[in-house]
Specification:
Structural class of chain B: alpha/beta
CATH topology of chain B: Transcription Regulator spoIIAA
Distance between the termini of chain B: 24 Å
Low-confidence stretches of chain B: none
Largest sheet of chain A: 5 strands, antiparallel
Order of helices and strands of chain A: EHHEEHHEE
Helix content of chain B: 25-40%
Shape of chain A: globular
CATH superfamily of chain A: Histidine kinase-like ATPase, C-terminal domain
Distance between the termini of chain A: 28 Å
Number of helices of chain A: 4
Order of helices and strands of chain B: EEHEEHEHE
CATH architecture of chain A: 2-Layer Sandwich
CATH superfamily of chain B: STAS domain
Number of domains of chain B: 1
Number of helices of chain B: 3
Oligomer: heterodimer
Number of strands of chain A: 5
Radius of gyration of chain B: 12 Å
CATH topology of chain A: Heat Shock Protein 90
Number of domains of chain A: 1
CATH class of chain A: Alpha Beta
Strand content of chain A: 25-35%
Largest sheet of chain B: 6 strands, mixed
Chain lengths: ~150, ~100
């Protein structure tokens, strides 16, 4: 029987919750005994997606960020969604070094890192509000047990 | 994020301890700028041996510091990055402007 599980958390779009979000997803994924590299990748992509929500989705007022993580076998699906302002041009936003806030020393590499560290990335945004980023990764078989997480 | 620094032999050594993300970025940026405003050094070495986590926000912070120090002709080098930080540095090309020292 294939191992299936999920978890879901909601929190305020406060930057202090970035560490909570990546730690929460990483802790949930530990049941699959990921390698240290895999767990670092997962923490990074969650941090990137949540940062986008904090900085771009809710630029003026705080809103709600939802993170849902599903596992099936060794496949992980992470969905980060918000009810913020949405992304005007998703294709442009996915380009390396693209940023709408260059004056704030943004690297513009968030989506590039998410896409590179995971197997697949989907971005859906509604101009009326809200963005959903879905990230997929299949962990390697027989990965070493992550230590110290 | 906790930042330690010392100057020795014309080199400013800076150690970033903790996590560098959006939440700690402003504090890191301000502290580094204050540290870099000092005198008595001709190069900067940023030691990442105690950096537990970094995402692309950290890259933005480092590039911003590079631009400021470039105006003073002071190079910045990276020391002791984790495997994960190195992966991000190589992907973003950070080593092109802040070479890694062994």
């Amino acid at each position: 029987m294939t191992n299936k599980n999920f978890m879901e958390v909601e929190f305020s779009s406060d930057s202090i919750n970035e560490g909570f979000a990546r730690g929460c997803v990483a802790a949930f994924c530990l049941q699959l005994n990921p390698s240290l590299d895999e767990i670092s990748d997962i923490k990074t992509v969650v941090s990137e997606a949540v940062t986008n929500c904090v900085v771009h989705a809710y630029p003026k007022n705080r809103g709600t960020i939802k993170v849902r993580c599903e596992i099936e076998g060794r496949k992980i699906k992470i969905q980060i969604s918000d009810g913020g302002v949405g992304i005007k041009d998703i294709s442009a936003a996915k380009q390396p070094f693209f940023t709408t806030r260059a004056s704030e020393e943004r690297s513009g590499m968030g989506f590039t890192i998410m896409e590179s560290f995971m197997d697949k990335m989907e971005v859906e945004s509604n101009k009326a509000g809200g963005t959903v980023v879905t990230l997929y990764k299949e962990l390697k078989a027989n990965a070493k047990v992550a230590e110290g997480e | 994020m906790h930042i330690k620094s010392k100057t020795y032999n014309n080199t400013l050594y800076v150690m970033l301890c903790g996590e560098l993300d959006e939440h700690s970025a402003t504090h890191t940026r301000l502290t580094l700028d204050e540290t870099f405003s000092g005198r008595g050094f001709k190069q900067v070495i940023i030691d990442l041996s105690e950096l537990d986590f970094m995402d692309s926000t950290g890259i933005g912070v480092l590039i911003g510091r590079y631009k400021r120090m470039k105006e003073k002709n002071i190079p910045i080098f990276i020391a002791n990055p984790s495997t994960h930080a190195e992966k991000i540095f190589k992907m973003t090309g950070l080593y092109d402007i802040m070479p890694k020292i062994v």
